[in-house]
Design goal:
Dihydrodipicolinate Reductase, domain 2; 5-stranded parallel beta sheet; 12 helices; 35% helix
Length: 385
């Protein structure tokens, strides 16, 4: 099987997310890194591209040059990953979708709901794939949670407790660190900081595992570190589409917390608990019974969890492996598309998922300004008439 041609925008030398994408995309030998516009500093980006083995004529000064050149090539890209600041996601995604290049965009997909709706329409009209990198849904035990809920093991889901809280932005002396500063700049981050950066993952995962979407919400945002304009801690209450209640806490100033992505689901017949920092274990407590530990890689897991497991039971599982499951599914989708075959069933997050998340972030920001007023969290194009 020939490898698909892959390009990366952003994720240059020193990037936090770039190495994860490069490891994940190439893990299954389904993609080859063929092109890139890797840094806002054109010279640095092109030098780094050469060090990664990208041909000199495909290491671009910026994404616009990359789009223009790749559109005209007979061997143009099959997929481009967008790993740039939030404010650039919409224009880059739209440009490559119009050029017929499939896209994997880092979250949030867009800065506004209107932009998100345009991307959804464009992807639907053109048939070009637009995926959003909610990569933590690639963990096997997250997929086990989803399978157990779909199977009815929990009965009706009553309550979701979602968290993504860390303490890495708690130091006021770190205010001018470029990796931190842009996240609290409305011009680059949009209407929200930590909810858009971290809480959005917890919210999407809550929807992913339960199959329910946010309908209405009430939010409280605070900025604990001066002079930040955008929030560094947020609490959101949500009412979900099939009756569940979701309590979501996200924070960047919780000293002592590291990554902090956790998910708890409570249903009529039992509860589930999972933490990204200990991803091999899923805790399952049937009603009126003892807690069981379900191990990744063990016998008897769902087909979805088994397919997502990459290493033998008992060995550490990592974030690049979870992301790799997203890339593998994208490769399957692109190959099916190219061969005119039916698209295989996939758990890969879509533009529709990205739009729902953006709409919820905007609703939360609006609610916070209105002292926690309940706001419709659905994108207008998905609301019932």
């Amino acid at each position: 099987m020939s490898r698909l041609s892959w390009g990366l925008i952003g994720g240059g030398e020193g990037s936090q997310i770039g190495p994860v994408h490069r490891l994940a995309a190439c893990l299954d030998n389904r993609f080859e890194l063929a092109a890139g516009a890797l840094d806002v500093d054109a010279e640095a980006g092109q030098k780094f591209a050469r060090s990664l083995g990208i041909a000199a004529d495909r290491g671009y000064a910026n994404w616009e040059a990359m789009l223009a050149a790749e559109r005209a090539r007979p061997d143009r890209l099959d997929l481009v990953t967008i790993a740039t600041p939030n404010s650039t996601h919409f224009s880059i995604t739209r440009g490559f979708l119009k050029a017929g290049v499939n896209v994997l965009c880092e979250k949030p997909m867009t800065m506004t709901v209107e932009e998100g709706e345009e991307i959804v329409r464009l992807s639907r009209e053109t048939g070009v794939i637009c995926a959003v990198n909610y990569g933590y849904t690639g963990y096997p035990m997250v997929r086990q949670m989803r399978a157990m809920i779909e199977h009815g093991d929990l009965g009706r889901v009553r309550l979701i407790k979602a968290e993504f809280a860390h303490g890495h932005h708690a130091d006021a002396e770190d205010a001018n660190n470029p990796r931190v500063r842009w996240r609290y700049d409305p011009a680059q981050a949009g209407v929200s900081a930590v909810m858009s950066d971290c809480g959005i993952h917890a919210l999407h995962m809550a929807s992913f595992v339960t199959g329910q979407h946010a309908e209405t919400l009430s939010a409280d945002f605070v900025s604990c570190v001066a002079p930040r304009v955008l929030e560094d801690d947020a609490m959101i209450n949500l009412r979900m589409s099939d009756g569940a209640v979701c309590r979501l806490w996200t924070s960047a100033i919780s000293v002592g917390r590291q990554h902090g992505l956790t998910m708890q689901i409570f249903g009529e017949k039992g509860g589930l608990r999972w933490s990204q920092e200990q991803p091999n274990q899923l805790y399952w407590t049937p009603l009126n019974s003892r807690t069981e530990v379900i191990e990744r890689g063990a016998h008897g897991l769902s087909p979805e969890a088994e397919a997502a497991s990459r290493v033998a039971v008992g060995h550490a599982e990592g974030m690049p492996l979870a992301f790799a499951n997203i890339y593998r599914e994208l490769a399957d989708m692109i190959s099916a598309q190219t061969n005119g075959a039916p698209t295989a069933s996939t758990l890969c997050p879509t533009a529709e998922d990205g739009l729902r998340s953006t709409a919820a972030v905007h609703a939360a920001a609006q609610s916070a300004k209105l002292n926690g007023a309940w706001i419709d969290a659905r994108p207008p194009m998905f609301r019932r008439t």
